[in-house]
Amino acid sequence: MVNLSTTYMGIKLKNPIIVGSSGLTNSVENIKEAAANGAAAVVLKSLFEEQIKHSASHTLNQDTHSNYYPEAEDYIRNYTRHNDVDRYLKLIRDAKQAVDIPIIASINCVSDQEWIEFATKIEEAGADGLELNMFILPSDPHHSSEYNENIYFEVLRKLTKLVKIPVSLKISYYFSSLSKMVLKLSWTGISGLVFFNRFFSPDIDIDKFEIKASSVFSHPEEIAISLRWVAMMSTKVHCDIAASTGIHDGKGMIKQLLAGAKAVQIASVLYKKGFQEIGIMLSELETWMTKHNFKTTDEFIGRMSVKEADNPAAYERVQFMKHFSGIE
After folding, report:
1. Handedness of CA 314, 316, 317, 318 (dihedral sign)
2. Any long-range contacts for 207-215 (C-beta under 8 Å, 24+ apart)?
3. Where are the domains of the chain?
4. Which residues contact 229 (CB under 8 A, 6 or more apart)?
5. Res. 130 pLDDT band, cuts 50 70 90
6. Kind and range of the H or E run holding 19
7. How far apart are the first and last CA of the chain?
8. Which residues neighbour 214 within 8 Å (Cβ) at sequence distance 6 or greater?
9. What is the pLDDT of residue 61?
């Protein structure tokens, strides 16, 4: 009998599968179904800073009298914010009562203005961990890379001093020096890094002249980006790594574990095939471990990282030399 357990963010998990932050983790009913199908943990749908601000602005715009009363405007903004946060805290408490797997809260922030207060409340509500979903789009030519990157460190510096629950950071690969940034982030006291965010990608409707969303769900071939960086950074960072995006079956999960991930986060495959896919992926993992005589995940996690692989240069190769130059 193989042991599928692993440790991520210092949290013991019965297997490496975490249901990632998405609409699938926005209700107790879905969380119960995920747990019943074998998920080791769930990351709740993110509490969005921008969404809270948008909700407050929308409410104010609907009230034509608010401009006459500055006190009323402040009240509406604060009420909307606290109402959204209170609903989120209730989800944490209800989920903790409904299932016996770790519940990781998630906040999507673009500043350090209000998240310290929110994080404290999330900890008090009983969350087992907190995932920060951060992305500062480097689109303002007046802001240097150092300016953008410093926002991450300011948020983490304040947060890790305040809360005792483990904190992870879900990041993008849009950094001028990704490896250096990842290493520096791992020094901040966080317990985990998630490679990588999946973003809204714009497309254009050429007949309606409107901006629309392109593909919402990930595809299996998208695993390549995170796989490369998990393999290159897993033995260098001072925290655990979870892999995300493009993991649609047991093989994809096994690849990320071999590269050095301690766990994987999945969502798109569950939207497409349902929560029962978790059990199928776990069965694939168990069969593969038995085939290769692995009794525990520790025996093979990181076996194909840059440090351990027979051909580590393959991870750093960026040109198609072999395929297009005729060299074999």
Report:
1. positive
2. none
3. 6-324
4. 173, 178, 182, 195, 196
5. very high
6. strand 17-19
7. 42
8. 201, 202, 203
9. 43
Q: Using the CB atoms, write b or e for 72-107: b if 16+ within 10 Å.
A: ebeebbeebbeebbeebbebbeebbeebebbbbbbb
Reported as a pLDDT band with limits 50, 70 and 90, residue 137 is: low
6-324 has which fold? TIM Barrel (3.20.20)
Residue 40, C-beta contacts closer than 8 angstroms, at least 6 positions apart: 6, 13, 14, 15, 16, 17, 18, 101, 102, 263
Report pLDDT digits (tens) over 261-302. Answer: 999 999 999 999 999 999 999 999 999 999 999 999 999 999
DSSP assignment of 163-191 equals: --S-EEEEE-S--TTHHHHHHHHHTTT-S
Max mean pLDDT range (140-144, 146-150, 279-283): 279-283
157, 208 in Cβ contact below 8 A?
Answer: no
Bridging pattern class, strands 263-266 and 240-244: parallel
Cα 231 to Cα 83, 137, 176, 261, 307: the distances in Å are 42, 25, 19, 8, 8
